[in-house]
Design a protein that fits this description.
This protein is an alpha+beta fold. The chain has one domain: Cytidine Deaminase, domain 2. The protein is about 25% helix and about 25% strand. A hairpin with a 6-residue loop joins strand 1 (about 25-30) and strand 2 (about 40). Bound molecules: tetrahydrodeoxyuridine (THU).
Length: about 140
């Protein structure tokens, strides 16, 4: 999968964000190892603020309803926001669930210089894990 297609999907779905409180609109596009589908998510806020769903976790959910994430783990995720935003702490833990090699690419659609890529293990060192992936 070309990175450009994932970026395009994240930028597109960002328009679906429901963010009347923060006005901070986020789109995410995810690919799984061994599959070509793109799974997208956007943030959905709530009047009870803490119930807000982040774009990254919605994209994980979209993938989970179609594929077994143990068999096809998330491999790369693009997050589109302006200004550029690295995933929040809760999303880092959720993303790290599926392996520490996951690449997180953050983009600002209105700033071509505002791009960066990280490995999830750098964003969340020593993450809490219960699955020994070598044994799955
Ligand atoms: N948000 C995300 O969707 N992903 C992130 O990684 C950071 C924050 C959303 C949550 C909330 O709707 C808005 O951005 C402001 O925090």
């Amino acid at each position: 999968m070309e990175l450009a297609r994932l970026i395009e999907a994240a930028v597109q779905v960002r328009q679906r964000a429901y963010a009347p409180y923060s006005r901070f609109f986020v789109g995410a596009a995810l690919e799984l190892r061994g599959q070509t589908d793109i799974f997208v998510g956007c943030n959905v806020e709530n009047a009870s603020y803490g119930l807000t769903i982040c774009a990254e976790r919605m994209a994980i959910g979209a993938a989970a309803v179609k594929y077994d994430l143990l068999e096809y783990p998330p491999h790369r995720i693009v997050v589109a926001a302006s200004p550029v935003a690295a995933p929040c702490g809760a999303c880092r833990q959720v993303l790290a669930e599926f392996g520490l090699e996951l690449e997180v690419f953050v983009v600002d659609p209105s700033d071509p210089n505002g791009r960066q890529s990280y490995k999830i293990s750098d964003l969340l060192p020593n993450s809490f894990q219960l699955i020994d992936r070598k044994r799955v």
